[in-house]
Structure formats: structure tokens, C-alpha cells
Specification:
The protein has about 350 residues and is mainly α. Helices cover about 75% and strands about 0% of the residues. It has a two-stranded antiparallel ribbon with strand order 1-2.
Length: about 350
């Protein structure tokens, strides 16, 4: 698998003009969003056709599907020797999900604050972010400074192993709280009557969509990582900075689209669970799989900027839970979005990334 992911496109393919590399970047992000959408839709339909509980669909397919771009991009970056890009995507996606997606949602409506979910997954949300920082800080202390910090392979394996109890408890908690689930007719896919009349066709078609979506994600990940790596080299920009500015935002678009769709369909409570679930998976799966493939070096930028912003965003959500009633207030979105905007301004100033056409 490593060999396949690492050699889909030759390095010479990315010896293109900067403007074309930016086109590759934008196009690959669009393909990642489309691929994730097909994985989520096809997986939900397949599970529904096979009679799998909606609980399991919501707790597994949706969160993993919307996180799949981050998983493939980060794992591929680690394999191709870009650990900063890999870890930057995981941390940056957590910041985008929490500060941007949840922040915008709060500005649009009074998002319901499901205490059942927040008192369980909410603590895991904070704990997973703190665990990632703790591992990096511990290695910095052990190895003699933040310049030598690393997410070792054993930690990556540990993160992935923790996914097992997380998924088990997610399904168990969802069964205890069925009113938080998406109704059957909300799950995208062919009409239930069609699926019942032609189950074989429905299974085959939905399986094909899942595989096609995954193939699109793999190909787009290769294109995105190659283009971003070349741009980093040409502009002299640290990979983690450009990863957070471009890659993390792009791979977080499925969560943003899911949040807007949840609001439009009148199920805003779904977006909170998806944001929190995706953030937990950013640590356990995205960083975990990447570190399992290759130990991830942690640049000083993470300690000075990325980690503090991530913990502040997650901490703000916990503060809102402690001090609010049954909904997030609209003003809650102001600090979150403000944090995100400020963070990106600082990143841009640090990176000094020239925009296409303005070099």
C-alpha cells in the first residue's frame, strides 16, 4: 500500500509552472470533497440497504467519510517524507472544524447543545487534542527541546488502537440516545422502495460509489500533496504552515458542507456531533495513521502557534458547555470565527505566501 500511494505520480510530473500547481491544488481539493461525499452517501445507502442500524451509520460512516480526505492526505504526506504537512493537516483540520465550521453555524442559528453528547463525546474532544499535545511535549522534554519533538510510531499505533473503544462507545451511546439520529428518509440514496425491489442492484451500485469515492480521494490526495510540496519548496514556506492554510481548510470542506446541510434540513444538532467526531478522528486516525506509517517530526511552529490555537478553540467549546443552557448562543460564534480569522492572518504573515498572479 505504501508503494502504491507513494508512486501514483512521478516527481517530474510536478515540475510545472506555479500557476498550474495552484490549479492542481484547487482541483484536487474539489475532488477530495466530491470523493468524501460519494463515500458518505454510498456507505449510508449500503448500510441502509443491508439493514444496518442508523445508529451505526451515524457513528461510523458519516464521521469516517467526512474525515477520509484528511486521512489519505496526511498518510500520503508522511509516506512521501512530509511529516510537517501531515501533522499540520491533522491539527489544522481540528482548528477549522471547531473554530470555523462550528463558529459559522453558531452565527447562523442557535445550535442545540445536546448535553448527552457534550458530556460524553465533548470530553473526548478535549482529551484527544490534549493527548496529541502531551505526546509532542513529552518527547520534547525527553529528547532535549522542542526542535527534537516527535510523534513516535508507538504513539501513532496507540492512537489507532484507541479508535476501537471510541467506536464501540460511540455506537453504545448513540443507542442510548436515539432521538439524536438522522431519520431514515434523511439518509441520502435511492428511494427505500427501489432498494427493496432491487436489493442486489442497490448493493452493487452503492458499493461501486464507495469504491469510486475512495479512488477519487486517493488520486486527489496524491495530486494535492505533490503540488503543495513543490510550492513549499519554491516559496520557501514551511510545509506545516501551507498545510494549515490550504490543505486543512480544503479537507475540512466536507464537514462545512455537512454542517450547512444539517442546518438547511432542520437538523442542526447533527452538525455538532459530526464536528466533534471528526476532530477526535483527526487525532486518532489522521495523526495516528500518519505516525504509524512514519514517525512525525514536530516543528517549533506547532508549539508556538498551532497547538495553542487548537487547545484554545476546543477549550472555548468546553467553556460554552459549562456556562450555557441547552443551546450555543449566536455570539458564541464570534470568538470562534474571530480566532480562526486571526490565526489565518498570522499564518499568512508568517508564511508570506504569494498569491497566484501576484508573485
Amino acid at each position: 500500500m505504501t508503494a502504491i500511494l507513494g508512486n501514483l505520480l512521478p516527481a517530474t510530473f510536478f515540475e510545472q509552472p506555479d500557476s498550474l500547481l495552484w490549479v492542481f491544488t484547487a482541483g484536487s481539493i474539489v475532488c477530495l470533497v466530491l470523493g468524501a461525499d460519494r463515500v458518505v452517501a454510498g456507505g449510508a445507502r449500503l448500510a441502509s440497504t443491508l439493514g444496518v442500524s442508523k445508529v451505526i451509520i451515524g457513528a461510523t460512516v458519516v464521521s469516517i467519510g467526512t474525515t477520509s480526505p484528511e486521512i489519505f492526505v496526511s498518510a500520503l504526506a508522511a509516506i512521501q517524507g512530509e511529516p510537517d504537512l501531515s501533522l499540520g493537516n491533522a491539527v489544522g483540520s481540528t482548528i477549522c472544524d471547531t473554530a470555523l465550521v462550528l463558529g459559522i453555524s453558531c452565527l447562523l442559528i442557535r445550535v442545540p447543545m445536546d448535553r448527552f453528547v457534550m458530556n460524553r463525546h465533548g470530553w473526548l474532544h478535549l482529551g484527544s487534542a490534549a493527548l496529541l499535545v502531551a505526546v509532542a511535549a513529552t518527547t520534547a522534554l525527553l529528547f532535549g527541546g522542542i526542535e527534537k519533538a516527535v510523534i513516535p510510531r508507538v504513539a501513532g499505533i496507540g492512537f489507532v488502537v484507541l479508535m476501537v473503544p471510541y467506536m464501540i462507545y460511540s455506537v453504545r451511546w448513540a443507542r442510548q440516545h436515539p432521538e439524536a439520529l438522522i431519520a431514515t428518509d434523511e439518509i441520502p440514496g435511492p428511494e427505500n422502495g427501489v432498494a427493496r425491489r432491487h436489493p442486489g442492484w442497490a448493493i452493487g451500485w452503492n458499493l461501486f460509489q464507495c469504491l469510486a469515492g475512495l479512488a477519487l480521494i486517493v488520486a486527489a490526495s496524491q495530486l494535492l500533496v505533490g503540488a503543495i510540496s513543490m510550492l513549499c519548496a519554491r516559496y520557501g514556506v514551511p510545509p506545516d504552515i501551507l498545510a494549515v492554510i490550504v490543505v486543512a481548510f480544503g479537507t475540512s470542506l466536507p464537514e462545512l458542507v455537512t454542517a450547512i446541510a444539517s442546518i438547511a434540513k432542520g437538523h442542526p444538532e447533527v452538525l455538532v456531533g459530526n464536528v466533534i467526531g471528526s476532530d477526535i478522528m483527526n487525532v486518532l486516525l489522521v495523526a495516528g495513521v500518519s505516525a504509524t506509517a512514519v514517525p512525525l517530526d514536530v516543528s517549533p511552529y506547532f508549539f508556538y502557534l498551532h497547538f495553542p490555537v487548537m487547545l484554545l478553540a476546543v477549550g472555548l467549546v468546553r467553556l460554552y458547555v459549562w456556562t450555557s443552557g441547552n443551546t450555543f448562543k449566536r455570539w458564541h460564534g464570534v470568538p470562534l470565527v474571530g480566532l480562526f480569522v486571526t490565526y489565518y492572518i498570522v499564518l499568512t504573515l508568517v508564511a508570506k505566501v504569494p498569491l497566484p498572479g501576484l508573485e
